Structures are given as C-alpha cells and as structure tokens.
Amino acid sequence: MAGCAWRSMLSQVVGGAKRPALSSAAFFSRGMQTVTLIPGDGIGPEISSAVMKIFEAAKAPIRWEERNVTAIKGPGGRWMIPPDAKESMDRNKIGLKGPLKTPIAAGHPSMNLLLRKTFDLYANVRPCISIEGYKTPYTNVDLVTIRENTEGEYSGIEHVIVEGVVQSIKLITEDASRRIAEYAFEYARNNQRSSVTAVHKANIMRMSDGLFLRKCREVAEGYKDIKFTEMYLDTVCLNMVQDPTQFDVLVMPNLYGDILSDLCAGLIGGLGVTPSGNIGANGVAIFESVHGTAPDIAGLDMANPTALLLSAVMMLRHMGLHDYGNKIQTACFDTIRDKKVLTKDLGGNSKCSEFTADICRRIQDLD
Amino acid sequence: MAAHSAVLSMSKIINPFWGGRLGNTVKCCTLSSMQLITYEMLMLQPPPAKYGGRHTVTLIPGDGIGPELLNHVKEVFRFSCVPVDFEVVHVNSALESEDDINNAITAIRRNGVALKGNIETNHTMAPSVKSRNNLLRTSLDLYANVMHCQSLPGVQTRHKNIDIMIIRENTEGEYSSLEHESVSGVVECLKIITRNNSLRIADYAFRLAREKGRSRVTAVHKANIMKLGDGLFLQCCREVASGYPDITFDSMIVDNTTMQLVSKPQQFDVMVMPNLYGNVVSNVCAGLVGGPGLVPGANYGRDYAVFETATRNTGKSIAGRNIANPTAMLLAGCMMLDHLRLYDYASMIRNAILTTMNETRLHTADIGGQGTTSEVVQSIMRNIQSKGPLTTDL
After folding, report:
1. A15 Cα to chain B: minimum distance (Å)
2. Closest Cα of chain A to B131: distance in Å?
C-alpha cells in the first residue's frame, strides 16, 4: 500500500527528470512550457531579467509567469505564500527563484522555509562543477550533493529542560530517508553518474544515522548498476579538501548536507556561481540561486547572473531540454573563460548587461 | 565565592603532596594573595604519577595503524632516553562488554595522562554498544579537544600560511548518544547543550588564546536554525568574551565557515565550537595543511589529558603496510611531554621531526613521498642523535 503510493509519487517526481529522447519531441509538439518565475529581492529582478534575455536569445521554449512571494497571514493565523503564487506553482510544477530576503523580527519564518513546507521540497540538489575561467585552488571538481531537506537536525524541535540545559531533537524517519535515497539513485541513473556515497556519522549516532544508512543500503539493492559506498562525515571532509575528484554523488541528511554543500560551493568559487535545485513531492521542482540579495549593489547593474543562469540550465535539464541547457551553459562558460566581460565578483569590471549581452551573442553564434 | 572555595581546596591539595617542591610558593601566600592564584596555576600542576623521576603514562594501542605508530613512539622515546614508562592497556573493540574500556579508564585515572590510538567502532553492532572513544572522553570529562593546524614548509598544499587553533567541546552536543525510537520508523537523537559546559569551553578557548598570544577567537555555530541550542552556546561565548577585552571575538555560521576555510583559511585564528561542527572543521583544517598524518590532537579535562592524532582515524586500509605517517602520533607524544613539563625532550624530538619533514624532506606516501614509516622514524632518530644535547654526552 505504502509502497504503491511511494512508487506513484516517485514516478511523478522523477517524471520530470526521466524524460529522455521523446522529451524534446513532446515539447515541440506541445509548444511552450510555462515556468513560474520568482524574481526575488535585491539583485533578484536584474538577474532574472538577464536570464530571461539569455533564454530568449537561445529561443528556449519557456514562457515565464512572474509571481511575487511575500509572507501573508492566511486564515487560521498561519503564515503562507500568496495564493496566486501557490496556484501558479501547482499548475506549472517548475519554478525558478531569485534570492529572497528574510527580514529579521518580521514575525514570520523565512521565505525559503515557507516554500519548502508548502511544496514539500524534500531534496536539495547542488551540482558543483569547476568553472574553467574562474580559478580556484581546486580543479576538476565534478560532484553533486543531494541533501535531505525536511527533517534531521533542522526539525526545529528544541526545549529548555531546566535552566541552562537545552535539548535539540534530530529527527530521522524511515520514509524520508528512503525517499531521498531513491531520488539520489534516480538522479545518478538519469545523469549518467557512476557512484553514490552516503555520508553519515553512524559510529556516534547509531540509531538515527544507522536508520538512514540502512535505508540507503536497501535502495541501493535496486540499483545494481550504480556503485554504492558509505563514508563517515569527517573522512569525507578530510578527503574533500585534499582531493575532491574522488567524489561523485553524495547523499546525506540535513545538517551534513548543509555543511558539505557549502563546502563544495566554496571549492568551485562560492555561492555566486553555484546552481541549486529543490525537488518536491508531486513533481514540483524549484531551482534557485543560493546567494544573498546583495542590497548594496541592487539596481546598479553590477550583479553576476551566473548562479541563477546555471540553476536555470539545471531546470532545463530536469525538463529534458538538454540541448538548450548545454548551449546556454557552454556560452556562459566560454564567456567566463574568455575573461573579457566579467562582473566585479568574478574579477572583471563589466556591467551585468554587458555580461548578459556577451552570452546572448555567443548563443546566437553557436546556432 | 566559587573562586574562594576553589583556591582553598587547591591549597589543601597542594600542601600534602607538593609541600616539598612548591612549599615556598604556598607558604608565602597569604589568604589575599591566594585569591590571585588563577586556574592557570592549577593547570600547571604536573600529573601525580611521577615516581623516581620517571612518569608513567597509559598507552592504548587501539586498532588499525594505532599499534604500529605507538610502537614507533615507544622506540623514539626509548632512543631519546625520555623518562616515561608506558603502561599498555589493550581494548578489544570486537567485544560487546565494556570491561576493557573500563580498565583503560581506571588506568588513566591512576596515571593522569594517556597516549592512544583510535579504537574502531563497528556500527553494525547493536546501538547499545557505544563508541569506546566517546565513552573514554565522557567518563574522564575531557571537555576540550585542542588541535593546532599549521602549514609546514616542507609539505605541498594548495593553501599556505595557515595557523589555526581549533578548540572543540568534547563531551556533549550531538555526541550525547541519547537516541530512541518512539514510533517504529521514527528515530529521535538528542543534542544537548548546557550552559556550564559552554561557559567552560569558551573560558578554556579564551585562556588558551591569551596564553598563546592570539588576537581573535571565532565561535562557529548554527544559531539561525538551532536558536535555543546553539543560541545558548553563542551567548555563553559572548559572556566569556566580555571578560577578555584584549581578544577580539566574532562568530560565524558553520556552512559559511567551511566555505571560507576552502577559499581563504588564513583569516582564521582561534576557533571554538560545539562537538559536531568541531568534527567537521577540524577535519577540513587537517586536510588543508596536508592530511591526517600530520596533525596531533589533545583532549584536556580538569584532571586528565589524553593525546592522540587530531583526526582520530583508524587507518584500517593502511595498517600493517609500513606506509602510515608517524608524524601525527610522534607530535602527539611531544605534546604529552610538554604536558608532563619535560620541555627539553619535547623540543628535541619535535625539532628532529620538523627537520625530517622540512629539510630532509623524507615524506610518506600520504604527503606525496616514497618513504616508509620505518625510514622516516630512522631519519628522526638520526636527527636526534646528531643534534640532541642529552645524547651527545654518551
């Protein structure tokens, strides 16, 4: 019973990822695909318009539906996102999101948390690939971190037992662990990845990480074509900074995922160039840039749209539009490699519009 | 009030045992000047096992590469005529009973100091069989894990000029081993943060920073998500920081910390953090300076000290092949000698190790060389022979 429900949910979730050759044909026949666009705050609007321009130059079959998300108080006093945004997302299933600011002491939880809860975004996927033109001490990085996004250490359940003693509860459930493990293996299979490594600390947290590990092992049984290994969190950290090329796909609970995904982002150059995707139940997927809103450079045409652009490329691949995705990614990497029109954070002094124009020109040249 | 009772109890401890040695110091202390006796003086007391001029230290070989590396340590110490006798206690990690580890703990209580290899935790055994290393740390209340990561000139790394001290809370946090399955398929693991332990570790960090002449302490946390737990830790750090105005204090969220560590590690000075983040950050820093074979670590408690390699690896895959790097364990032995106040021996051995590493450049495979463990140890002993002041007189 539960198995069937999970399998149907799973097929809906990976339906987006698992549309091979027939996808482009299906889309061409269906025409444009609508995607919900959430520009965000700060530099959000400018990088979103940059991405829209680039997609237009690439003639990608995407129609954008812009929505704004601000927390509003719904009936019953619970905070929620505006109903038109929710309805648009439920209809389109795919979303692209810019950076959202969380005002302190606003009384409502962070917007990212609200979105996560609303759409049950249970997997956070961050592919980290070294960018050729942007030099970091680490080369040839090509790994993907898949992080469980709903439970674990971030369940937010905390109590003060007595004065001066606080307990935080880390929650690991069988269902969530199985769900994330299944997603990880499906992702590996669909993206031609050869191995999946489960990151854990089962020597100390025997029952919780032990459960996570057991579920990963069980799911691995069904994917014999993909190599499955398990590694302690500290060993992964140690090896990651010495030789990141040995890792392929990493799957892990929430806290380790948070730390490791940011570690990997640091390896390739920081949050300004790292794409990220959140996969939810019912086929919903929201791709986002994970950097901040940078209010100090907002509106000055200085922002770097790379992170949002690469997330959009991830989105194209998720929808099966691999050709467009590859074209845009190649153009972007070529522009960065050429180093002629780089934005300030990448080491140049060009404007965002110049950077965007260069990418558009390259795309048109590629055609 | 607490200070008074601590001082008075300290004087009661000092007089009977060290009346001869420190008698002068204690006798000329009046009650008012006793109040000036800080906790630092308490820490300077040598451990109680000194007999006939020789110290006894508990040695726990552990699993994997532990036994062979500790044999090398014994070899180097014997060669250098270090006045330390090792009491070897074996702990069999395959057994379910806790008798072995309890024997080890008793031995450490008796001797006060220990040098250990990592004891393997087989996590396929039942959850009631707890990690032996963790048991040792919590029973002896070794609350501070101190690790000093320094770039060595002879080792090729991506980042240079790293000099970070990491102080990690060693007994609570995520490693409380309190887990339960209330409903089938749902496991809860408790992370405990207490005010006392947080204050204690923050105080240790600031005192160590002051002692070593460091200017900045950074607290690593995730208080934006775990508001109560890490919030309490951060608050305690801030309180302690206010008592050390000469040291700058700032804080950083753990994911940002790891990102900064791989891009600009030179910005960090001293870092203090709870248990799990300490695990991640110390392993990242060890990787940045050259790997697990280079960095020693120390676990300090109020009454006991246990020395080991910083990253606590068992190294099962390289055990018995004579390719392990002995540097970390030997430097841990030197830290132990410093703790026993045998400073001359410690610096003699440490200089020999650093000469082999930086000048002779005889490296093991993990740092890109071709030497074997025994070759490196022989080279170190040769360096001791040629430069050590105590052996040239023989």
Report:
1. 27
2. 6
A294-301: long-range contacts, CB 8 A cutoff, minimum separation 24: A294/A42, A294/A43, A294/A99, A295/A41, A295/A42, A295/A101, A297/A43, A298/A41, A298/A42, A298/A43, A298/A46, A299/A46, A301/A46, A301/A351, A301/A352, A301/A353
Q: What is the pLDDT of residue B24?
A: 39
Separation in Å, CA of A5 to nearest CA in chain B? 17
Q: In chain B, what residues touch A153 (CB-CB under 8 Å)? A: 174, 191, 225-226
Q: Tell me which of A237, A250, A271 to substitute to probe the interface with B (most B C-beta atoms closer than 10 Å).
A: A237
A159, closest residue in chain B (CA to CA): B228
Q: Nearest Cβ partner of A206 from B123, B193, B259?
A: B123
Contact between chains at A208 and B189 (C-beta distance less than 8 A): yes
Q: By three-state DSSP, how is residue A17 classified?
A: coil
Where helices occur in B80-180 by DSSP H, the ranges are: 99-111, 132-139
- Digit-coded pLDDT (tens) for B46-95: 555 578 889 999 999 999 999 999 999 999 999 999 999 999 999 998 88
Residue written as token pair 């753990």:
B254
Report field, pTM of the whole predicted structure over 0.90: no
What band does A341 get if pLDDT is binned at 50, 70 and 90? confident
From A169, which residue of chain B is nearest by alpha-carbon distance?
B190
Residues A269/A252, Cβ–Cβ less than 8 Å: no
With cut-offs at 50, 70 and 90, classify the pLDDT of residue B224. Answer: confident
Using alpha carbons, list the distances in angstroms from residue B205 to A88, B168, B286, B381: 52, 9, 19, 35
User: What is the predicted pLDDT for the residue at A27?
Assistant: 43
d(CA B229, CA B234): 9
Cβ-Cβ contacts under 8 Å for A335 (sequence gap 6 or more): A133, A341, A355, A358, A359, A362
Instruction: Provide the 10 A C-beta neighbour count for residue A21.
Output: 9
Whether B186 and A172 lie within 8 Å, measured CB to CB = yes
Q: What local confidence, expressed as pLDDT, does residue A55 receive?
A: 92
Q: Which of B335, B334, B337, B311 is nearest to B324 (CA)?
A: B311
Percent of chain A scoring above 70 in pLDDT: 90
Say if residues B167 and B333 touch (Cβ distance below 8 Å). Answer: no
Residue A163's CB: how many other CB atoms inside 10 A?
7
Report the C-alpha gap between A336 and B245 in whole angstroms.
46
- A321 CA: distance to closest CA in chain B (Å): 32
Q: Which of B259, B295, B314, B325 to mutate to test the interface with A (most CBs of A within 10 A)?
A: B259
pLDDT at position B15, please? 43
Contact: A255, B276; criterion CB under 8 Å: yes
Residue-wise pLDDT for B290-343, tens only, equals 999 999 999 999 999 999 999 998 988 999 999 999 999 999 999 999 999 999
Contacts of A11 (CB under 8 A, 6+ apart): none
In this predicted structure, what is the pLDDT of residue B32?
A: 43
Enumerate the residues of chain B whose CB falls inside 8 A of the CB of residue A104.
none
Distance from CA of A320 to the nearest CA of B (A): 32
Among B3, B5, B104, B119, smallest CA distance to B57 is for B104
User: What CA–CA distance (Å, rounded) separates B137 from B147?
Assistant: 16
Using one digit for the tens of pLDDT, what is the confidence trace for B359-381? Answer: 888 999 999 899 999 999 999 99
A128 pairs with which residues across the strands? A143
Tokens of B352: 């020999």
pLDDT tens digits, one per residue of B244-255 = 999 999 999 999
Q: Distance (Å, rounded) from C-alpha A165 to C-alpha A167?
A: 7
- A-interface mutation test, from B178, B199, B255, most A Cβ less than 10 A away: B255
CA–CA gap between residue A302 and residue A244 (Å, rounded): 31
- A13 has a pLDDT exceeding 60: no
Chain A residues in contact with B193 by the CB 8 A cut-off are 165-168
Q: So what's the pLDDT on residue B23?
A: 37
